[in-house]
Specification:
alpha/beta; Rossmann fold; 12 helices; about 45% helix
Length: about 280
């Protein structure tokens, strides 16, 4: 565990650093809900709007953004944190203008990183902050310490769920954990693989009402992505569906979400700085 004195020194170091990028973390209580596919395609929609977007594969156990996009990179974030590579060596630009920081598998829990690795991670996050308008963090499923650390960095926590009762229950558990840990950003629910707008709205209301009643937190409606065979076809091709099938219903849904989030983006000076939160990763 990072010592209190060390954490305070780290906060002091970052207190005067400029803040720029908006951080959107996609998370899910349950696996298999389409979170990573959503992160990739949402990032491409942001990039299409003219934003400088970096997608970080923050699943430190089983990263798979590179698999879904058919990327071949000799280095990944694990090499960067360990000092074996620079950030540029683990970053690729994919068609559509999205930059991807390739994830690694089997990276240690953040609490177990050495002091050198902690400083390297801070450096990575610093570089990202100064070179992007939007940083998207695609986390692992669940509520592990690694996941919640990247949740805490976010300005917007985008919780991805499907209409199944288990998915909605786990989505609420994730929101509850974030609130209990003092998350100060905005929480929104993105319903995936729904059959209709009504189904999505009903699911959102169910989660939002419980969260308001028991957690006193507002869960905003991020929108929905309909069940669409084009998504599965694109995954099998290892392509992004918004590029492969731009006229599909799923693409239309995510384009709407990206447009809404871009319009709602807050001025830089009003947001809590990304780097000012980094020290909390090690407390």
């Amino acid at each position: 565990m990072f010592g209190t004195d060390q954490a305070e020194k780290l906060r002091q170091m970052m207190r005067d650093l400029p803040t720029k990028a908006r951080v959107v973390t996609l998370a899910s209580g349950k696996g298999g809900v389409g979170k990573t596919v959503s992160a990739i395609n949402l990032g491409l929609c942001f990039a299409a709007s003219g934003k400088r977007v970096i997608l970080v594969d923050a699943d430190l156990g089983l990263a798979n953004v590179d698999v879904l996009l058919n990327l071949n990179c000799r280095r990944n974030i694990q090499h960067v944190i360990s000092g074996q590579a620079e950030l540029e060596e683990a970053m690729l630009t994919v068609p559509g203008g999205l930059r991807v920081v390739v994830g690694g598998s089997g990276l240690a829990q953040l609490a177990n990183l050495s002091e050198f690795e902690r400083h390297r991670l801070v450096g990575v996050l610093s570089d990202l902050e100064s070179n992007a308008d939007i940083i998207i963090c695609d986390t692992a499923a669940g509520i592990s310490r690694n996941v919640m650390a990247f949740v805490d960095l976010a300005d917007l926590l985008l919780v991805v769920a499907t209409p199944e009762p288990t998915s909605l229950t786990d989505a609420y558990a994730l929101i509850k954990t974030a609130v209990q840990q003092g998350f100060e950003g905005t929480v929104s629910l993105l319903m995936n693989r729904v059959t209709s707008r009504l189904e999505a709205r009903t699911c959102h209301q169910r989660v939002a009402q419980v969260a308001k009643r028991f957690l006193d937190v507002t869960v905003f409606d991020a929108g929905y992505v309909v069940e669409d065979p084009c998504v599965g076809q694109a995954v099998r091709k290892r392509k992004a569906f918004v590029l492969e099938y731009p006229g599909s219903q799923a693409s239309y849904c995510l384009m709407n979400l990206a447009a809404k989030l871009v319009r709602a983006d807050r001025p830089v000076e009003q947001k809590v700085g990304f780097l000012r939160k980094v020290a909390n990763l090690f407390v």
